[in-house]
Structure to design on (271 residues):
């Protein structure tokens, strides 16, 4: 795994410890999550695609230690939509240098990951999602699903998260009601996104889940972040948090916009 200035697990080393990727999770210590010095621990920029200049991503990573770049993976949409790159492109990205990467698994990749994580091995159609989840250069995983329409059990989801040694994020929104409180794995984290990934701006931010590191999304971007950050910090009341954005850092052709990312990181740097 690549390490560089102040990665997320060092920013919150009193919050949880991330060992090298394995199937043996380490305990997440959450008693010391509160800090007045640096409540914003990460700015996640989601949707790096096959046309993204990875040298510019590496440059932004070096200049902004809080930057985390996320790649979307969906077996159904891979290579069919700009924001869902094909697997070979994703693997190339992950080997591009000292960049803090997250993988966001979508669609069929979520139950495939759960099945493989519980069994401890990838087989058949499970291989790609699990391979990405345990890649040594991935620092976090996010599982994008609507539990109301899912066929897996919460106990299986909890077991799968617990089996991975890095933080695993699930989204908190209406279709996932009850999921966040049901997951007991110590490496579980929660992303509040009332818009369900549609980039709809909100002025009402939910307080974080007690005992979990939480993030916030929903219409965030270079035009809205300076307005939203004070409100998010207020509801977090000193607890560390991260922010995530996707729709508003893409250009008119739905390609990842590094200029927009740079403006976002400049704003987040002052938080």
């Amino acid at each position: 795994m690549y390490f560089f200035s102040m990665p997320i697990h060092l920013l919150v080393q009193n919050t949880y410890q991330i060992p090298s990727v394995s199937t043996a999770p380490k305990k997440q210590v959450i008693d010391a999550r509160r800090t007045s010095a640096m409540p914003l621990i990460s700015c996640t920029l989601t949707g790096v695609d096959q046309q993204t200049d990875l040298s510019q991503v590496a440059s932004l990573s070096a200049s902004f230690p809080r930057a985390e770049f996320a790649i979307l993976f969906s077996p159904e949409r891979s290579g069919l939509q700009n924001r869902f790159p094909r697997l070979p492109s994703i693997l190339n990205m992950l080997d591009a240098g000292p960049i803090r990467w997250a993988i966001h698994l979508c669609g069929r990749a979520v139950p495939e990951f759960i099945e493989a994580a519980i069994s401890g091995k990838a087989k058949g159609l499970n291989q790609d999602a699990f391979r990405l989840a345990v890649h040594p250069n991935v620092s976090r995983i996010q599982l994008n699903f609507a539990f109301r329409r899912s066929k897996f059990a919460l106990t299986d989801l909890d077991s799968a998260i617990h089996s991975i040694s890095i933080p695993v994020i699930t989204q908190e929104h209406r279709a996932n009601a009850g999921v966040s409180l049901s997951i007991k794995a110590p490496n579980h984290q929660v992303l509040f996104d009332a818009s369900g990934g549609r980039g709809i701006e909100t002025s009402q931010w939910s307080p974080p889940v007690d005992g979990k590191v939480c993030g916030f999304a929903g219409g965030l971007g270079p035009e809205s972040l300076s307005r939203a950050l004070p409100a998010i910090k207020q509801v977090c009341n000193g607890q560390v948090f991260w922010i995530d954005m996707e729709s508003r850092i893409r250009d008119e052709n739905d390609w990842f916009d590094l200029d927009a990312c740079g403006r976002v990181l400049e704003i987040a740097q002052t938080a």
In short: The chain has a mean pLDDT of 86. The first strand starts at residue 40 and ends at 46.
